[in-house]
């Protein structure tokens, strides 16, 4: 994409009313727009990152047998009354609205109830199970305060998967498969080293223990205790000798850290299936309860976490897997030879299937280089009088700051 | 995909409480789930169609210079007060909600205001224009009644593009480019012959005339007058001699028809840019107003229209461009040779990059063939004792019912 065509501009001043690093950088880079506190729109480059994260998650969810659906935002109170969760005293962060034809509706806070109720029409026999259903859908949470940028939104995109199993044993097999898929996802989006499977309390969804995935960050709201060598952690709220023994961890090897919860997986047992009448007929013709689990990753929070954790003083640092573009091609100087050479390289990159953002704007070099750092593409490729004279491109790695001088053919081999 | 793994089942009884053909068929085929009146969830095969329609539209919007964003569902009343449109007396089908921290919010009814307000931060100079911004985002309309299945939802997915031009002339150039793109979109999703560019009244968005795109269907809520040879139409509400003359049409050549509005394009003039303070600085340093237009296609309505218009007595008929799968591979009989041959053909189709739904279920032949008709993939490929003996596959075209006997190699050439 030609940067001269991109409507979203960068800015150098921090936005007012933002305290979170992720929101400051994403707004300054022109990747998101703040609609109001906790509510952010995605501009073209930000949306590209969001879609790439979505693709990584979709691939991993499909690989473990997930079937994708798209549930609705407007929620029918009838099915929520069956679990008692329409009550504001039970779920305290609902947004609700009213039908002009009469009656109150919920605005999707989560989707256990509608997915379970929908499956009543489709699951009958033991032969139909297990089933894993997931979606990418916006959630709405009526937070009293929203102050962590896009990491704790009132409106945010989430991947939520629900598992429906015949038995607790069958459920646990999938639970572990999903935990492994989650670790692959966090590794693929560049947070593998920073993210720990973490034993935690189940919160309002379950009474037992659950697993969270926590990414180390000073911006986090959680306190966890990590064992770096075993790459495991325990949330402070469940740090007991019994739980440490369960994980084979010892207090002496633990390190306290602040962290961001980027994913969670919950056993739900029979709570929702019982309440909504979802059961299956077993081999002997008897009705049996269905054992459920839920598995969530907030995509906009994950995007914000990548920014929080990997950014440096110059700006955002995108891992190649989710960067808006693989290459930021920057033409310095407006001489005709530079312009022509840059145009040609841009065309050749497209031809080679390499996604490039081409800074073809007529701006001072300092401004363009500053923007390249702020926007954070993995490779910055400079075309200038100097590089033309040398017959090589200047290629800078955004993360390591390493500079190399490569021919176009050498550059292209990096993407093979 | 193996049909034995697909959780969504077909059913033979029409759903109760549905009068619209599109909803009856989509629910019977297991493509959508009715959450409540006018609110439908998409199940795996339905979501595949929705995403394919989205891809077609995205390609055409990118081709005319559109930049994709994702605005928000929660709407800040402040910016809507500037145009007066937060008032229920002005826009009568808002859903609204309340922040727990105080204050009312809108639930996205449309997005002129937020997109215009967002661009105030990004557009400054004549050099920044024209700009075309679009999104795929859910809209919410508080309809008193919802009775046309997924064609008039209380919640529905829409592509909305907004154009920002320096002058009315610049706007009109893009307006015609977008009209041409719309005709390509409707042709690509299989509705080209049935869909007419139609002169219409502007409704609440504008005082002048606008263009609608109307697809002929008895299920439609509009009455239009079409000239088949010129492939143009006039909405009944603006059928005047003056307007006919403007289009070069004559009353004698017109035919009355019922139709579904599948797209619309509106001149917005300076209404929103003036109200929200969006202007640009021209070459001489003077502030100038920005001329806007809006361009909408409802994706879920378009999906419903394809079903309404192309379905036959046997069920849905998908055009290849948006079908959930290109091929429905059906194994008849459960003998080991049939099973093995079908498995091999399924693997070979995947290998060749052909998307196939593989009916590997242990069900009577009649039920599987009925499901294949109901689900409506473009090609049904049968593997049975009979086809194995003949050494050829039985390939049926869902639309024409033509049956051919092809080798696998011959089948594959259809997709080259």
Automatic annotation (TrEMBL), chains A, B:
InterPro entries: aa-tRNA-synt_IIb, aa-tRNA-synth_II, aa-tRNA-synth_II/BPL/LPL, Anticodon-bd, Anticodon-bd_dom_sf, Pro-tRNA-ligase_IIa, Pro-tRNA_synthetase, ProRS_anticodon_short. Its EC number is 6.1.1.15. It catalyses: tRNA(Pro) + L-proline + ATP = L-prolyl-tRNA(Pro) + AMP + diphosphate. Keywords: Aminoacyl-tRNA synthetase, ATP-binding, Ligase, Nucleotide-binding, Protein biosynthesis. One of its GO terms (molecular function) is proline-tRNA ligase activity. One of its GO terms (cellular component) is cytosol. Residues 38-319 form the Aminoacyl-transfer RNA synthetases class-II family profile domain. One of its GO terms (biological process) is prolyl-tRNA aminoacylation. It comes from the Bacteria. PANTHER family: MITOCHONDRIAL RIBOSOME PROTEIN L39/PROLYL-TRNA LIGASE FAMILY MEMBER (PTHR42753), PROLINE--TRNA LIGASE (PTHR42753:SF2). This is Proline--tRNA ligase. It comes from Candidatus Vogelbacteria bacterium RIFOXYD1_FULL_46_19.
